[in-house]
Specification:
The complex is a heterodimer of chains A (159) and B (285).
Chain A lengths: L1 H14 L11 H4 L2 E7 L2 E6 L8 H15 L4 E6 L12 H10 L1 E2 L27 E4 L7 E5 L3 E5 L3
Chain B lengths: L41 H22 L8 H26 L6 H6 L10 H4 L5 H22 L5 H29 L3 H14 L11 H4 L12 H14 L22 H15 L6
The chains are: A alpha/beta (159), B mainly alpha (285).
């Protein structure tokens, strides 16, 4: 019984660790938290990077160790896996809502595949207008692009 | 084990060849579970090394544009693309090193020119922005087809790395396609430069699709390069046709990167990339 409640508690703590780049999202909202296991006093948390070179992974790992250690788990291991690969489809509905409230346009639907891409409209997170313009395909982090409506805004791009 | 400064011969503390240097490692435990029981075999390691070297050298080359791109947005774009490629290189080199116990840093910083396996395309100077875009168009189109197929590799580590890389490389391809069309359809000068960029990079296309005995020894694990050529050509043809550009013609470079015979640029690239790690072993910040 104790092991079960420990597992639930560890899962809850891990799920509440925030994305260092988009702090309105937890790593659970973002879909990068893959698994939390507790056995014989050891917590093993499995996460996956959003992008292959994403430097936020290191911070997430440190934050997970800190949060779980502070909650009394003495032995915490964080594993990073690549498979199955993260895409923006892993972002939860709650995560999407939080992004809009924070002023970041969430990922749109997917354009048909092909070498010359069709660009889909991105709604402004403040006014909902579709009369927006891409300023930069690559933004402040690997996962975002920069758009503008009456003001510039970040778009969490489809990946 | 070719470099004289491989871990076994250094007298650093314990089992860490770089002393107290701390590099944040992305651990690929799940894919590589049983890493200790089943590290990469010699052939699989050599194959991973090839792909890792291509990604590493291209990342290094693109990084040169940081603070030099035509506009701030392009600084960020090329920097982001380089970061993705570095992520692929780290995963691939780490896996390659599992064969003989070398770390990703040992492989990146402590190998000399003949030990690298980079194809000549990736060693070409970025030249002006149009040359960089031409190199990107060719590289990303090739890498997209390669990783799309490698995602189905029977080797779980290669498959996981490729499945992750393919969506990123697709975005890189999109970036290169957009710029190719923009430059070709822009002013007379931008069109001329784009045509020149493509012509200068084209001699190095053939080497991307060479098969060799290593590939024959890895059926189901490695992707046969020649099998990607038709899809590569179809994409390039469609992009060039969009702006009425002709497919470049001309001589084909001999190549030899997979055998450690390199274009003269690689020495300079490595000198810049490796100098800090070699002059200050164990340095960290």
């Amino acid at each position: 019984m104790i092991a079960v409640s420990d597992a639930t508690r560890a899962r809850e703590i891990a799920a509440n660790v925030r994305d260092p780049e988009v702090p309105v999202l937890t790593i659970d909202d973002l879909g990068v938290l893959r698994d939390v296991e507790v056995s014989a006093g050891t917590v093993v948390v499995t996460i996956t990077p959003t992008y292959s070179g994403c430097p936020a992974v290191d911070t997430m790992r440190d934050d997970l160790v800190l949060a779980l250690t502070a909650a009394g788990f003495a032995d915490v291991r964080v594993r990073t896996v690549l498979s199955p690969a993260w895409t923006t489809d892993w972002l939860t509905e709650a995560g999407r809502r939080k992004l809009v409230e924070y002023g970041i346009a969430p990922p749109t639907g997917r354009a048909p595949a092909g070498p010359i891409r069709l660009q889909l409209g991105v709604a402004c997170p403040r006014c909902g207008s579709l009369h927006t313009r891409e300023i930069s395909r690559f933004g402040s982090t690997a996962c975002k692009a920069l758009y503008e409506c009456l003001e510039p805004f970040d778009h969490f791009k489809v990946h | 084990m070719t470099a004289p400064d491989t871990p076994a011969t250094t007298d650093a503390t314990d089992d860490d060849p770089h002393g107290d240097v701390s590099v944040d490692l992305v651990d690929l435990d799940l894919e590589l579970q049983g890493f200790s029981e089943r590290a990469a075999t010699a052939d699989v390691a050599e194959y991973a090394l090839r792909l890792g070297d291509d990604a590493l050298i291209l990342a290094q080359q693109l990084s040169r544009w940081i603070a030099h791109a035509p506009e701030l947005e392009e600084d960020i774009a090329l920097g982001n693309i380089a970061l993705d490629l570095l992520g692929h290189a780290r995963s691939l080199l780490r896996f390659a090193g599992s064969y003989d116990g070398r770390s990703e840093d040992d492989l990146a910083y402590f190998r000399d020119e003949p030990d690298f396996r980079t194809l000549w395309l990736f060693e070409q100077d970025g030249g002006d922005f149009a040359h960089t875009i031409a190199r990107q168009l060719i590289a990303a189109t090739y890498l997209y087809e390669l990783y799309a197929d490698l995602a189905a590799s029977t080797d779980p580590a290669l498959s996981a790395i490729a499945a992750k890389a393919v969506t990123e490389v697709e975005y890189h391809r999109d970036h290169a396609v957009q710029w190719t069309l923009r430059l070709a359809g822009g002013t007379d000068l931008s069109r001329e430069r784009m045509i020149e960029g493509l012509a200068d990079m084209w001699p190095y296309v053939d080497e991307l699709f060479h098969d060799d005995p290593l590939i024959d020894r890895l059926p189901g694990v490695a992707v046969r390069p020649s099998s990607l050529r038709a899809r590569f050509d179809a994409v390039i043809d469609a992009v060039l046709a969009e702006e009425g550009l002709d497919l470049p013609r001309g001589p084909i470079a001999s190549g030899g990167g997979r055998q450690g015979k390199h274009f003269p640029t690689l020495g300079y690239i490595l000198a810049e990339m490796q100098v800090l790690a070699r002059q200050h072993p164990g340095a960290h910040w």
